[in-house]
Amino acid sequence: MGMMSLRTGVRTLLDVLLEPHVLEGVLAWPKFSLASHRIVRALVQQGVSVESVIDVGANVGQFCVAAAKVLTPRKIYAFEPLPSAYSRLRKNTQKLCGVQLEHVALGERKGEVEFYVNAHSHSSSILRLGESHRNAFPNAVETDVIRVPMTTLDRALAGIGVARPCLLKLDVQGYEDRVLEGAHDTLLAVDYIVSELSFKPMYEGERTFTDMLELMSRYGFKFIRPLDFLRDPATQEILQVDGLFERMRPMRNA
């Protein structure tokens, strides 16, 4: 085991030993992720309380399970396009109440799209890996290219009265801005957004942190705080944050 992996393992073990909520999740939840646990706990500490969650880029259910267990919303709408991940998502959420799953990618239009499958499923994306991503995580390599159906969030939730307060979680590996482009109507019912934000492009064509702050402002959301960080294992440079946004006013034309 490399030194960085050893340090990560030690930090994870300390979290489990020192935080009783972490140990409970490891032992009892159908799927546990320390990163997702940190995010939802930080949301609670921030005073965020929601009736519904929209989980875009649900992968195998890491955030979905954590949100169901900690935030306890009445309804969760989860979207995942990768077939292998969706199969595990369905298994990991089958005993949770109020979870609605959709096997589809979300973006700015309806149709089909090429999807780059990664050796690490959570790194799979509609976008190609960027140089910064390859340098920091050389084991995260593209293994296949498949075609998946894509629709917009507005189409996917058309006719559904999403209960408020509502949290939208975006983790679509650089495609967040395009998901927002297809979600104008949905955003009117969203009170909080948790989005992955990169300080340098981790995927080709990805908007960076400052660009996303400006975009979110045009949609009527202000940046509140970071919730978790992703670091370069070798240099400890912070590459990404999971940022919390809160509605501040009606959105302008974005």
CATH topology: Rossmann fold
Give helix and strand order, one letter per element, not per position: HHHEHEHEEEHEHEHHEHEE
Quote the average pLDDT: 91
Number of domains: 1
Corresponding CATH architecture? 3-Layer(aba) Sandwich
The CATH class turns out to be: Alpha Beta
Q: For the record, give the distance between the C-alpha atoms at the N and C termini, rounded to a whole number.
A: 47 Å
Shape category = globular
Explained architecture:
The protein has helices spanning 3-18, 20-28, 34-45, 62-71, 83-93, 131-136, 153-156, 176-181, 184-187, 209-218; strands at 52-56, 75-79, 99-102, 105-106, 111-118, 142-151, 166-170, 192-198, 221-231, 238-247. The chain is an alpha/beta fold and 254 residues long. It has one domain: Vaccinia Virus protein VP39 (Rossmann fold, 3-Layer(aba) Sandwich). The strands form 2 sheets. Strands 3-2-1-7-8-10-9 form a 7-stranded mixed beta sheet. It has a 3-stranded mixed beta sheet with strand order 4-6-5. The chain is globular, with a radius of gyration of 17 Å. The N and C termini lie far apart (47 Å). Mean pLDDT is 91; it is low at 1-6.
